[in-house]
């Protein structure tokens, strides 16, 4: 688990971007609206909209593969639709490496 | 981007005392500091002298606190988990033939994992007794017993439900039937009176860093009949160094290596603190805090409390519409209120009470205040009211 202080506060736009990649839950009626992002096998992110602090948890078995994923989300968000496509491509290659690590499953035989 | 440090202007409300108590009494911190300011004194391991041999002094204090002796039957370990592993694996090794063991759904993984490991290795067969109305009864234990039963391992107090088991009749029955009874007192020692002269346990486990107010890294067990358990750790004891076999006398039998002196000093001071304040007075305050907190929670719509009448200062609950991990995060970051979330190392309890998804746990100590409980309840109220959770994904 890591806790980061961002250079700028998290925005609603970033949360909309996250929805393209996983599940976002939000509690908007709190004094400080809360959000959590979950991407299975990758990471979970928790924080408050308008805050610079976020908690990021990495899946232990794949930590070396997903260590940069949070940074990639921040980076590609700036590129809009193009960024979405690029990051989906990066995800694909990470998933391929995960499959190799997990070994052949009954479904793949 | 840099790694964050928590910074908040509101006072910290610490409600995670079932995990480890905080703060510690000032006397405990002073005793640990004093212990570290001078060379450790232990006959056999030093030529130095000293006024206080912490291991001996702490054993005396433990024997008085638990109303039993001799003090040498109190053994120091790293924690309750270490104690339970010593006892469970030691009993199996001593018994040396496969047998049947019994435990309960209320147990912590420090009981479940050693027993499950032994079951998988074929050393034991295992029955897990369900709880009813938050407790496990003698009748339920009797139902599980068979001719091959040799061991029962059971929690005295649940770290999730806060319920206290009536271990005396169970201990008496098991002793009469020659079944070794290990009691996990990690959650009860320091909260409620435990008179081991009146409860014929095979072994009673305690930990130092919870309600006994010591620091992490110290725990132990009381064992009136040590021959029932094999020695599974051997090493230096500061005595009879010429002999290559490990001593069988107490307490060296179960204590190899240098003691955790600061830990023992903290345990010594923590028990003296409890004795000076009075266990009944501490218990009354904890009860008042717990009941007050539950009263506040019951007024909040959407709260499920899993035991509204706990015997320990432990309240486990859920907020409708909010994942317990999210709720714990919000309470900690937005309200500076520390709890614990998830399965609390007790997976079988959660299978029964919340389908295995876990819950939020608030647990109190003598150092919490009514104002803190009220503030925590208000925070929970605000979080519950906001639970119009929206879930989005593509």
Helix content of chain B: 25-40%
Which residues of chain B form runs of ≥5 with pLDDT under 50? 1-7
Strand order of the largest sheet of chain B: 3-9-8-7-6-4-5
Structural class of chain A: alpha+beta
Looking at how many chains there are and whether they match, the oligomeric state comes to: heterodimer
Largest sheet of chain A: 5 strands, antiparallel
Helix content of chain A: 25-40%
Mean pLDDT over the residues of chain B: 94
Largest sheet of chain B: 7 strands, mixed
Care to describe what's here?
The complex is a heterodimer of chains A (109) and B (394). Chain A is an alpha+beta fold and 109 residues long. Chain A has helices at residues 12-18, 63-66, 69-77, 80-102, and strands at 2-5, 23-27, 34-39, 43-48, 53-58. Chain A is 39% helix and 25% strand. Chain A has a five-stranded antiparallel sheet, with no helix packed on it. The longest helix of chain A is centred in the C-terminal third of the chain and has 23 residues, at 80-102. In chain B, helix 6 (167-176) links the parallel strand 6 and strand 7 (180-184). Helix content of chain B is 36%, strand content 16%. At the A-B interface, strand 1, strand 2 and strand 5 of A face strand 1, helix 9, helix 11 and strand 15 of B.
Topology:
The complex is a heterodimer of chains A (109) and B (394).
Chain A: E1 2-5, H1 12-18, E2 23-27, E3 34-39, E4 43-48, E5 53-58, H2 63-66, H3 69-77, H4 80-102
Antiparallel strand pairs in A: 1-5, 2-3, 3-4, 4-5
Helix pairs in contact in A: 3-4
Chain B: E1 2-3, E2 13-14, H1 26-37, H2 54-65, E3 74-77, H3 80-95, E4 99-104, H4 109-120, E5 124-129, H5 138-144, E6 149-155, H6 167-176, E7 180-184, E8 203-207, E9 219-222, H7 261-277, H8 279-298, E10 303-305, E11 314-319, H9 324-335, E12 337-338, E13 340-342, H10 347-354, E14 359-363, H11 370-385, E15 390-392
Parallel strand pairs in B: 2-12, 4-5, 4-6, 6-7, 7-8
Antiparallel strand pairs in B: 3-9, 8-9, 10-11, 11-14, 13-14
Helix pairs in contact in B: 1-7, 2-7, 3-4, 8-11, 9-11
């Amino acid at each position: 688990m890591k806790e980061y202080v961002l250079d700028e506060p998290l925005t609603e736009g970033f949360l909309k971007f996250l929805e393209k990649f996983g599940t976002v839950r939000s509690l908007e009626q709190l004094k400080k609206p809360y959000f959590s992002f979950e991407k299975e096998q990758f990471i979970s992110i928790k924080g408050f909209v308008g805050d610079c602090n976020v908690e990021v948890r990495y899946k232990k078995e794949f930590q070396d593969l997903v260590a940069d994923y949070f940074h990639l989300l921040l980076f590609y968000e700036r590129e809009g639709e193009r960024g979405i496509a690029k990051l989906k491509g990066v995800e694909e290659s990470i998933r391929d490496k995960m499959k190799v690590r997990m070994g052949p499953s009954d479904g793949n035989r | 981007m840099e790694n964050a440090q928590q910074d908040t202007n509101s006072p910290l409300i610490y409600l995670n005392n079932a995990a480890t108590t905080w703060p510690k009494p000032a006397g405990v911190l002073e005793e640990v500091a004093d212990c570290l300011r001078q060379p450790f004194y232990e006959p056999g391991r030093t030529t130095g002298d000293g006024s206080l041999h912490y291991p001996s002094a702490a054993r005396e204090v433990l024997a008085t606190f638990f109303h039993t002796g001799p003090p040498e039957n109190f053994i120091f370990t790293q924690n309750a988990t270490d104690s339970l592993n010593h006892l469970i694996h030691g009993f199996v090794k001593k018994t040396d033939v496969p047998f049947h063991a019994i435990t309960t759904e209320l147990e912590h993984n420090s009981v479940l994992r050693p027993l499950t490991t032994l079951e998988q290795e074929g050393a034991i067969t295992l029955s897990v007794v369900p709880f009813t109305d938050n407790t496990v009864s003698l009748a339920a234990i009797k139902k599980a017993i068979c001719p091959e039963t040799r061991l029962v391992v059971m929690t005295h107090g649940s770290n999730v439900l806060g319920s206290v088991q009536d271990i005396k009749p169970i201990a008496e029955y098991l002793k009469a039937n020659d079944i070794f009874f290990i009691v996990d007192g990690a959650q009860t020692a320091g909260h409620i009176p435990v008179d081991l002269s009146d409860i014929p346990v095979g072994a009673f486990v305690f930990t130092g860093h919870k309600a006994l107010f010591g620091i992490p890294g110290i725990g132990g067990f009381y064992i009136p009949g040590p021959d029932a358990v094999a020695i599974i750790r051997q090493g230096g004891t500061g005595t009879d160094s010429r002999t290559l076999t490990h001593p069988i006398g107490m307490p060296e039998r179960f204590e190899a290596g240098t003691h955790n002196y600061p830990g023992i000093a903290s345990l010594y001071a923590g028990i003296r603190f409890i004795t000076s304040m009075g266990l009944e007075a501490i218990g009354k305050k904890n009860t008042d805090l717990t009941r007050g907190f539950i009263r506040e929670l019951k007024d909040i719509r959407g709260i499920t409390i899993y035991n509204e009448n706990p015997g320990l200062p432990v309240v486990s609950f859920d907020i409708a519409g909010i994942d317990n991990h999210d709720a714990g995060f919000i309470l900690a970051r937005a309200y500076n209120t520390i709890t614990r979330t998830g399965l609390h190392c007790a997976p079988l309890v959660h299978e029964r009470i919340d389908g295995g998804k876990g819950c939020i746990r608030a647990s109190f100590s003598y150092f919490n205040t009514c104002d803190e409980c009220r503030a925590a309840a208000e925070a929970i109220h605000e979080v519950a009211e906001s639970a119009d959770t929206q879930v989005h994904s593509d």
